[in-house]
Design a protein that fits this description.
It is a single chain. By secondary structure, this protein is of the alpha+beta class. It starts with a helix and ends in a 5-residue tail after the last helix.
Length: 427
């Protein structure tokens, strides 16, 4: 009993410490409360609630337009059309495939971006037809992140129909390549080209109200390909076998990676795909694995990379030494993903506004770490935050993904209030 009491006391102290570590400057709390109480914002909040059918219909329509990795064009085109229908100063699709809509500010020196990603994790040919049961929407990608796209359209319509003006430009962004091997290619392109120049970044991507993501979870991803001549399992026995080398490489890597990740800042590893071979009685000519490594500490990714290379080369050498005839085995390690990590100070004005806005909606803000479009601006030191899409969802990245509209309008109201406060709206 004594140990149990100590355990609960430690948990309580931990939670208390976490809550105490989130300090919200009264300056920002007062700003958010002042804006939220203005007539135009109150009217806008009511309008967002009235627009629930509009938001719902956009969510259904866009969800049912497939957006597999590297093939987001159809959804991007329709999303751009919807932005044009609402009305905006300019809208275009850049050469990477991102959809961009610009609302010019009254001064227009700064630009604040509001983002959701167009792509899903699901391959081409996936059935994306929505199914509604007891008010819950089931469909691949419905919550991650098509819900975010529908929120952007409602926010834009509210700003336009209520004739809301801000000092800064507002950039509505639908990015490509956020998921998987897309490797954040859409947002990387935006900040690499710096056109238009973005001064603050707000992303909507998964999670409930209260999510304030200000830490980028870095990752490296690899495709390892062992290649050999291949042959008959009996007649060519003694030739190098790519699968055998791959098995050794996996075993070597797991042993060294597990030991390294037992201590220090959290670091993970995963071999998510293994493929190759033509039949049970054929020595394969190719064996492939895809590896995901993540860490909150950038330097640890480099250490893990070194462990992977050593494990793979050891597996290669072992198999080649076992060769009895034929050509030697070769290996290629391709780095197919590089998502930078980083953290921003909670004292930044954008983050303080996100915390104060969350608090205004009677939610407890949670400073989180994740792998989202915000990784790129965070790594560059540009103010950025990822907030939740609200409602209740589950089974993300699965065919049974679902989202339930439990007061989902509140997440749209929160996003609008945060956007307007950051973009210099004055009541």
């Amino acid at each position: 009993m004594k140990k149990l009491l100590i355990y609960f006391l430690l948990i309580s102290l931990t939670i208390q410490a976490q809550n105490e570590s989130i300090n919200i400057d009264k300056v920002y709390s007062k700003q958010i409360n002042r804006l939220a109480k203005s007539k135009i914002i109150k009217s806008s909040f009511d309008y967002i609630f009235d627009l629930e059918p509009f938001t719902h219909n956009n969510l259904i329509e866009l969800t049912e337009i497939a957006a597999p990795p590297f093939k987001e064009q159809k959804r991007a085109s329709r999303f751009a059309e919807k932005i044009k229908e609402i009305g905006i100063d300019s809208v275009w699709i850049d050469s990477e495939g991102n959809v961009l809509g610009l609302l010019k500010g009254e001064i227009g020196i700064r630009t604040v971006a509001l983002d959701a990603h167009l792509d899903t994790v699901f391959p081409e040919g996936t059935d994306v037809k929505t199914r509604i049961s007891n008010d819950t929407i089931y469909a691949p990608g419905v919550a991650d992140d098509t819900r975010g796209l529908s929120m952007l359209l409602t926010i834009l319509k509210t700003i336009r129909d209520k004739n809301i003006k801000t000092k800064d430009n507002i950039l509505i962004v639908g990015t490509v390549g956020e998921e998987g091997l897309g490797d954040l290619r859409g947002v990387k392109y935006l900040f690499k080209n710096n056109s238009p120049k973005i001064d603050s970044w707000i992303a909507i991507d998964g999670g409930a109200l209260g999510r304030v993501n200000i830490k980028g979870l870095g990752s490296y991803r690899y495709r390892v390909t062992f290649s050999g001549p291949g042959g008959h399992s009996w007649g060519a026995f003694g030739m190098v076998n790519p699968h055998h080398a791959l098995a050794s490489a996996i075993d070597n890597f797991i042993d060294s990676a597990d030991e390294y990740t037992l201590e220090g800042p959290k670091t993970s590893y995963n071999i998510g795909i293994v493929k190759g071979g033509t039949s049970i009685n054929s020595i394969p000519f190719e064996s492939i694995m895809e590896v995901d490594i993540r860490s909150i500490e950038p330097s640890r990714l480099d250490v893990m990379e070194d462990l992977l290379y050593k494990a793979v080369n050891s597996g290669l050498d072992k198999q080649n030494k076992m060769k009895r005839s034929g050509e030697s085995l070769t290996v290629v390690i391709d780095k197919i993903g590089n998502r930078p990590s980083g953290e921003l100070e909670p004292s930044l004005p954008l983050i303080q506004r996100a915390l104060a806005t969350t608090e205004y909606f009677k939610e407890t803000p949670r400073l989180t770490r994740g792998s989202t479009d915000s990784n790129i601006p965070i790594s560059l030191g540009i103010p950025a935050v990822t907030i939740g899409r609200g409602g209740v969802g589950g089974n993300a990245h699965s065919l049974n993904e679902w989202w339930y509209n439990k007061e989902g309008y509140r997440s749209i109201q929160l996003a609008l209030l945060l956007l307007l406060s950051e973009a210099g709206f004055e009541k």
